[in-house]
Amino acid sequence: MSYAGDVTPEEAFAAATGPDDALLVDVRTQAEWTYVGVPDLAGAGREVAFVEWSRYPDGALNGAFVDEVRAAGLEAGRPVYLLCRSGVRSRAAAEALTAAGLGPAYNVVDGFEGPHDPEQHRTVGGWKNSGLPWRQG
């Protein structure tokens, strides 16, 4: 069973702050949250769930990921939007939640930071570069 699909950061923001009670889950690592920043939904009266897909520094998959997302408030039928740095880990996380019978689960393309620009900096695309609310972790 495939996850529900890919959405833009703007679409994820609209869903996570809209009437459907969608949950935004940032699946990056604690180090990324601390040093790069995090999405901020406080202005809309919502919270972001922070659940690592893989652990830092060894990159080991978080075997408790599905249970930790459930503990953050996800239940079957509640839409969930998953965000990582660039959209790779979040896609795998969306697939895992879908396989566990949760969601619909959506992958946020371009993630929090977006792809590289010609100088190899992450200045194009992604949540942070789209003008959506964020804060330093």
From TrEMBL:
Gene Ontology MF terms: transferase activity
Keyword annotations from UniProtKB, A to Z: Transferase
SUPFAM superfamilies in the cross-refs: Rhodanese/Cell cycle control phosphatase
Record-annotated Rhodanese domain positions: 18-121
Start and end residues of each stretch annotated as Disordered: 117-137
Highest taxon in the source lineage: Bacteria
SMART domains according to UniProt: RHOD
InterPro entries: Rhodanese-like_dom, Rhodanese-like_dom_sf, STR4-like
The keyword Transferase appears for this protein: yes
PANTHER family assigned: RHODANESE-LIKE DOMAIN-CONTAINING PROTEIN 4, CHLOROPLASTIC (PTHR47377:SF1)
The protein's name in its UniProt record: Rhodanese-related sulfurtransferase
